[in-house]
Amino acid sequence: MRLLVTGRDGQVAQALLALSGSDVDVVALGRPTLDLTDRASIERAIAEHRPDVVVNAAAYTAVDKAESDEAAAYAVNAEGAGHVAAAAAAAGLPVVHISTDYVFAGDKAGPYVESDPTGPQGAYGRSKLEGERLVAEANPNHAILRTAWVYGPYGANFLKTMLRLSQTRDLLRVVADQRGTPTYAPDIAEGIVAVSRALESAPGDASKRGVFHMVSEGETTWAGFAEAIFSRLAETSGKHVTVEPITTADYPTPAKRPANSRLDTTRFRQSFGHSLPEWTEGVSRCMAALAANEAP
Ligand SMILES: NC(=O)C1=CN([C@@H]2O[C@H](COP(=O)(O)OP(=O)(O)OC[C@H]3O[C@@H](n4cnc5c(N)ncnc54)[C@H](O)[C@@H]3O)[C@@H](O)[C@H]2O)C=CC1
């Protein structure tokens, strides 16, 4: 099976590339070769590489910047996602599209299921929600995977920021009133491969089409995530960092974040017979990979 993946240098795209081998062949392309805002560039890439499934892992992911740059976020996350889905549909191919917990308002008491009403709190979430709509409209043969709190050995993310700050600080103040699930990019990549196989092998199976919540198992807060990182750091390096829990109000950002980002993964697990490991396992594996210098 060959996957054509957009957004080559992203966390998820890099994790997919790392899986490329004998049973899955991953071609990842980024700008300028493949630009989401240029549908012809996507069509050319499909014609050249002849994938079995197209995976849209590219996105405008600067959540705060999107507040003052909504048109750019919309061009990539909404219209661009629609172009990827339409180009795949024109070639008769399924599309796997990655979306986000930020499509929700975050005011539900429990974990969100796929059919819960959306209510994005900011420009990024609005652009991603519109992307979901345009993908579904352009290509009925789609799986939209909403994930959350992505981190991994590649690219910039919360875990790497915490490790960087730990080099100069013994105490860090971290938000403790947003709940969600840190999700390890290599686990997302495995999930995408499982979904891609299912789309390829079960054409027309409606139970494997539509929107799915795909995050690691378990839940925590950003402060809990930081504590897990620092407890492993203490084990391996002896360095101790204290996490001081703060509230969202103590740490103002241009974009409002959902207080509850928890996603119920039942539909994903039942439809694909696949689940992502506990979030704490990903933290250990990521830190081991970084320590072994497996990634930049
Ligand atoms: N990072 C996170 O915490 C979360 C990410 N997601 C979603 O997961 C997916 C993957 O995210 P990450 O790998 O973390 O993102 P990332 O920011 O690491 O990578 C995104 C890639 O898309 C590329 N890109 C941006 N505009 C483009 C365009 N016009 N054409 C082609 N490529 C373009 C960027 O250059 C970058 O390489 C995205 O759909 C994102 O919205 C969902 C929930 C949380």
UniProtKB/TrEMBL annotation:
Which superkingdom does the taxonomy of this entry point to?
Bacteria
Instruction: Please tell me whether the keyword NADP is annotated for this protein.
Output: yes
First and last residue of the signal peptide: none
Q: InterPro entries recorded for this chain?
A: dTDP_dehydrorham_reduct, NAD(P)-bd_dom_sf, RmlD-like-bd
Q: Record's Pfam families?
A: RmlD_sub_bind
- Name the pathway: Carbohydrate biosynthesis; dTDP-L-rhamnose biosynthesis
Q: Which family does it belong to?
A: Belongs to the dTDP-4-dehydrorhamnose reductase family.
Task performed by this protein:
Catalyzes the reduction of dTDP-6-deoxy-L-lyxo-4-hexulose to yield dTDP-L-rhamnose.
Protein name, as recorded: dTDP-4-dehydrorhamnose reductase
Question: What species is this protein from?
Answer: Aureimonas ureilytica
